[in-house]
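batch_manifest entry 22 of 60
target: alcohol dehydrogenase
source organism: Phaseolus coccineus
requested by: lab member K.T.
priority: normal
notes from requester: please return tokens only, no post-processing; we will run our own comparison against the previous entry in this batch. if the run fails, retry once and flag.
--- input ---
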Amino acid sequence: MPDDTSPRLAESSSSHYVTSKSGGTTHLLPKPPLLVLQLTMEDNNQASSPASATEGKPIQCKAAVVRKAGEPLVIEEITVAPPMPGEVRIRVICTSLCHSDITLRNLQDFPAIFPRILGHEATGVVESVGKDVTEVTKGDVVIPVILPECGECIDCKSTKSNRCTIFPFKVSPWMPRDGTSRFTDKNGEIIYHFLFISSFSEYTVVDIANIIKIDPEIPPDRACLLGCGVSTGVGAAWRTAGVEPGSTIAIFGLGSIGLAVAEGARLCGATRIIGVDFYPEKFEIGKKFGVTDFVHAGECGDKPVSQFIIEMTGGGADYCFECVGTASVVLEAYASCRKGWGKTIVLGVDKPGAMISLSSHEVLHDGKSLMGSLFGGLKPKSHVPILLKRYVDKELQLDEFVTHEVEFKDINKAFDLLSTGKCLRCVIWMHKMSTHC
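--- output ---
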């Protein structure tokens, strides 16, 4: 994302800031909630002692467990084992709810497996580390990310890929190194992991390949958003598509991922950002993130959406982003791209086994590209810190994504809000409500 094309944002009236001096320059940083300062100081105090009371021992805590497909989560006592080599045990401060959590809660078939602890957008404090972990230490504030990065394999060292060879991305029920679980219920039965994170628990164990240390002054209820959804959308525009200043883009689906794409495109200097959705109220929300035009997908009559976009743009959008997760929408997005250089980026996830069918003649003659974007093409440990800095510098909007917050005991309310389309992101606080919002 070129810095010179990124508009500066006005200070949010709901945020509080402190000054911080670095290299002789004074920076304006978001003031952290008292909760984060307290947690960090507590864990730093533990880190200064020879060993904390829990280090190397199992921890009993509460977790929200999904036991049957489609049923509400059950908050129950579980045991979290100590971290194994290469792992980190984290005390979760807060976690956000993503549509992927809802999808896996409701899914009947593979990769569904129960009982399971969902959740994958979180901020936490390191409680203890396993053998050979040097990247973080007790008391560090961290965010887990869904995409591993070992830093050593050919893919991690390449600028062309964000897929790790050693730790490939999977919707796995196990820890990545040894294929076992760190969770058991009160009867000693195994509880399965989700996306190597499982943040709907007061404590969780995450591989160091999925951990990013962050500045403790960054509000946890904003940092957690970069563990999956917002990073994916912003990164898709920035890294996968490489949106240039003056570009025209079309976004199919104005949920939180689609709005994050709009935010990324805005930061990259896109001139025209077209939102496509069935709900016109999404346009008003989208304007906050740079959406300039709206196509009501339900009021196109006999004319396909792609025809509207081709006519609006004089030949098609430079970049189209599919953020719904439906094969038919992928085809419509592809058809909406300009011939010769148009690029369609797929971010939505359709049901297992879903296929798309393209005319080989059109693929050859139209000269357009179609590609997927896992985690927005971002290398987590290299690029997420850049996004965090852009938030601190008031360039990247994160505050606007958080529309609701609940206490941990009300986690099912968060599922209801997101399922009915009443929120973008709902932050779930593990122990107390934040005073930041």
